[in-house]
Automatic annotation (TrEMBL):
<feature type="domain" description="UDP-N-acetylglucosamine 2-epimerase">
    <location>
        <begin position="53"/>
        <end position="390"/>
    </location>
</feature>
<comment type="pathway">
    <text>Amino-sugar metabolism; N-acetylneuraminate biosynthesis.</text>
</comment>
<keyword id="KW-0021">Allosteric enzyme</keyword>
<feature type="binding site">
    <location>
        <position position="594"/>
    </location>
    <ligand>
        <name>Zn(2+)</name>
    </ligand>
</feature>
<keyword id="KW-0511">Multifunctional enzyme</keyword>
<dbReference type="GO" id="GO:0008761">
    <property type="term" value="F:UDP-N-acetylglucosamine 2-epimerase activity"/>
</dbReference>
<keyword id="KW-0963">Cytoplasm</keyword>
<dbReference type="InterPro" id="IPR020004">
    <property type="entry name" value="UDP-GlcNAc_Epase"/>
</dbReference>
<keyword id="KW-0067">ATP-binding</keyword>
<feature type="binding site">
    <location>
        <position position="584"/>
    </location>
    <ligand>
        <name>Zn(2+)</name>
    </ligand>
</feature>
<comment type="similarity">
    <text>In the N-terminal section; belongs to the UDP-N-acetylglucosamine 2-epimerase family.</text>
</comment>
<keyword id="KW-0378">Hydrolase</keyword>
<feature type="binding site">
    <location>
        <position position="596"/>
    </location>
    <ligand>
        <name>Zn(2+)</name>
    </ligand>
</feature>
<keyword id="KW-0862">Zinc</keyword>
<dbReference type="GO" id="GO:0009384">
    <property type="term" value="F:N-acylmannosamine kinase activity"/>
</dbReference>
<dbReference type="GO" id="GO:0004553">
    <property type="term" value="F:hydrolase activity, hydrolyzing O-glycosyl compounds"/>
</dbReference>
<feature type="binding site">
    <location>
        <position position="581"/>
    </location>
    <ligand>
        <name>an N-acyl-D-mannosamine</name>
    </ligand>
</feature>
């Protein structure tokens, strides 16, 4: 360390001699918004504290100068910095074109400013479109650029902008070892890269404001306690504006349901930001008693607010970077920060497409306290950066040099191994069979096991555990990493607790059964449980016709009749987990008796059991078999025999099938009039035999406004197993919910 210090002093002395002892390094710091100022301010204070070596010019542009975003240039003035130039560069608009026009406007205005200032070096931060304009202008005007926070990986267009600035910059200050390696991989000169840590950490780790309660009360109210409020900060994702606005709407719905005091900050200036503000106002956030909506919070106060919050939620880089210094729980929504290094305190909700996911994440994270993380800094970034600035030799050639790795001709590689495939264990508990499968992330059934479903609870649970253990062991051999266990079962299920409340008559001794605990304890894996009809709907949503469809219904036509309803991309369970019992829609007041005890249910007409019952009646009256059919003496009459007889011209069998199809069609019409889905998916072994009859009934019986609904047969070979797998694959691990 002593050697390094002496070497550094000697180098600085040599640089001063080269640059001229009387020459001060003229540094231009350009700040565009509240976020980058929080990183640049510590450096600016450091430069200002050494007037014998540096001359500081401050240029303010972007959202700093917009009233809608709090006129945050005032906090720069409050920090006692002289603002040399104010540039209004934001073009008002709500789409991507406005961002492009803003960059163009900045490019028009900046050359005059830089000609007047003539800085030796310009400091540019981050990955905003304003920063790209700054770097482009400086590079074309032969001004050296120092880029802060290059080499990081996040998501959306920010990555492209950040890496573009890296290519324009002459010097780089990065925050993590991974970022440093990325810069080297991008062919940047290692001698011009400084691993300093994040400048904001210098302030974070020294923040010991004992009067934090006054700050909390000022922003959230007098009755708020520490660890009992939420800070929300969410920005539009410019590569998918529509989805990010929908995600913001779901976030606000979840926060309203969670019923905790919440501080909501306005989003950044980006395409889609105005629409997000409209969503806030539409939901009455600014006047809701539990919410405080603000355009800006000074950084030193913001530090105290997140340090003592019960949770932070959103997609701001602050959540995955700065908040880790305090161990505050963070919920990172969507893909905007994908690739960022994070501490243990961050829970990622990659596909934040339902209110329930976000609400469950809040329940998991709120009020926890994690170990403090120093991934992004140790509090000594600014001294390192100042030393780095002093070492810059202005007499060195300005032209950048790239350090390209050697490239060999005719490179051929052998694949020694394939990375493990992320997979799920799927369990399907049917009335007859018990099946377990290894299902990959793409919906491929890698391995499947099947046994007869035992009649008693003890034997059934023992067999499930045995088959799951066997499948988990086999997963290693087929190079699959099991993320969890998903279970599809008949009956009414509480998916939150993983309990089968009560089952159909087809599965005996299967009421008030906790499936999650024993299986999770035995396999040391997370376990999800749901009704088989709901699982079929989830399978369609992830792998089948329902992918990307906002409102659809799945009907299973098998031994019984079941189904699942997806409304606004969410699976509906109902207040007592009894939603989508579609087989028990009554279509006739005096119809045949159903296994549920009622009469005239769809299941009493159209299920496999109902068709088997009618087939037996015909067989007992010698009216089933026709020419071309034969049965062995010991063969059990089934629904398949009835279908075969109808195909071979048996009028009575055909009449029974038409009646069953009509009953199913009437049930679908009732669903259309109640839920108004855009798609109905018929699943199961009988689906193809019913689809034409269902369409005919819709054309005859449905209101004209719903007749245009699409009715299709599922193309999934195993919806129950795929649905059970999707329970796991949609939520994967603890870190990705």
């Amino acid at each position: 360390e002593v050697y390094f210090k002496n070497l550094s002093k000697q180098k600085q002395k040599e640089v001063m001699e080269k640059n001229g002892n009387n020459h001060k390094l003229r540094v231009c710091v350009a700040t565009c918004n509240r976020a980058d100022y929080s990183k640049l301010a510590p450096i600016m204070f450091g430069i200002k504290a050494e007037p014998h070596f540096f001359e500081l010019d401050v240029v303010v542009l972007g959202s700093h100068l917009i009233d809608d975003y709090g006129n945050t240039y005032r906090m720069i003035e409050q920090d006692d910095f002289d603002i040399h130039t104010r540039l209004h560069t934001i073009v008002r608009g709500e789409d991507e074109a406005a961002m492009v026009e803003s960059v163009g406007l900045a490019l028009v205005k900046l050359p005059d400013v830089l000609n007047r200032l003539k800085p030796d070096i310009m400091i540019v931060h981050g990955d905003r479109f304003d920063a790209l304009a700054l770097a482009t202008s400086a590079a074309l005007m032969n001004i050296r650029i120092l880029h802060i926070e290059g080499g990081e990986v996040s998501g959306t267009i920010d990555d492209s902008i950040r890496h573009a600035i890296t290519k324009l910059a002459h010097y780089h200050v990065c925050c993590t070892r991974s970022a440093e390696q990325h810069l080297i991989a991008m062919c940047e000169d290692h001698d011009r890269i400084l691993l300093a840590g994040c400048p904001s950490y210098d302030k974070l780790l020294s923040a010991k404001n004992k009067d934090y309660m006054s700050i909390i009360r000022m922003w959230l109210g007098e009755d708020v306690k520490t660890r009992d409020y939420i800070v929300a900060l969410q920005h539009p994702v410019t590569t998918d504006i529509k989805h990010s606005i929908k995600m913001f709407e779901l976030t606000l719905d979840a926060l309203i349901s969670f019923n905790k005091r919440t501080l909501v900050l306005f989003p950044n200036v980006d395409a889609g930001d105005k629409e997000m503000v409209r969503v806030m106002r539409k939901k009455g956030i600014e006047h809701h008693p539990n919410f405080r909506a603000v355009k800006h919070v000074p950084f030193d106060q913001f530090i105290q607010l997140v340090a003592h919050a019960g949770c932070m939620i959103g997609n701001s880089s602050c959540g995955v970077r700065e908040v880790g210094a305090f161990g505050t729980p963070v919920i990172n929504l969507g893909t905007r920060q994908t690739g960022r290094e994070t501490g243990e305190n961050v829970l990622h909700v990659r596909d934040a497409d339902t209110q329930d996911k976000i609400l469950h994440a809040l329940q998991l994270q709120f009020g926890k306290q994690y170990p403090c993380s120093k991934i992004y800094g140790d509090g000594n970034a600014v001294p390192r950066i100042l030393k780095f600035l002093k070492s810059i030799d202005l007499k060195e050639p300005l032209q950048k040099k790239f350090c390209f790795p050697p490239v060999k001709d005719n490179i051929s590689q052998d694949i020694d191994h394939i990375l493990e495939t992320q997979s799920a264990l799927a369990v399907d508990l049917g009335g007859t069979n018990l099946r377990v499968a290894i299902v990959s992330m793409k919906g491929e059934i890698v391995k499947k096991y099947s046994e007869l479903n035992p009649k008693t609870y003890e034997d059934r649970l023992e067999l499930i555990l045995k088959m799951c253990v066997e499948a988990a062991s086999e997963a290693v051999n087929v190079n699959c990493r099991i993320l969890g266990v998903g279970i599809s079962t008949g009956g009414r299920v509480n998916p939150r607790e993983g309990i089968v409340l009560h089952s159909t008559k087809l599965i005996q001794e299967w009421s008030s059964v906790d499936l999650r605990t024993p299986i999770s304890d035995a396999l040391h894996l997370p376990v999800w449980v749901d009704n088989d009809g709901n699982c079929a709907a989830l399978a369609e949503r992830k792998f089948g016709h329902g992918k990307g469809i906002e409102n659809f219904v799945t009907l299973i036509t098998g031994t019984g009749i079941g189904g699942g309803i997806v409304h606004q991309h969410e699976l509906i369970h109902g207040s007592s987990f009894c939603a989508a019992e579609l087989g028990h829609i009554v279509v006739s007041l005096d119809g045949p008796e159903c296994l549920c005890g009622s009469q005239g249910c769809i299941e009493a007409y159209a299920s496999g059991i109902a068709l088997q019952r009618e087939a037996k009646k015909l067989h007992d009256e010698d009216l089933l078999l026709v020419e071309g059919m034969s049965m062995k003496e010991e063969e059990v009459v089934s629904a398949a025999h009835l279908i075969q007889a109808a195909k071979l011209g048996n009028a009575k069998a055909d009449s029974i099938l038409r009646t069953a199809g009509t009953a199913l069609g009437l049930g679908v019409v009732n669903i259309l009039h109640t839920m108004n889905p855009s798609l109905v998916i018929l699943s199961g072994v009988l689906a193809s035999h019913y689809i034409n009859a269902v369409k005919d009934v819709i054309n005859r019986q449905a209101l004209s406004s719903v007749k245009t609904v699409d009715v299709v047969v599922s193309n999934l070979a195993d919806p129950a197993l795929l649905g059970a797998a999707s329970l796991v694959l949609d939520y994967t691990t603890r870190r990705i919910y």
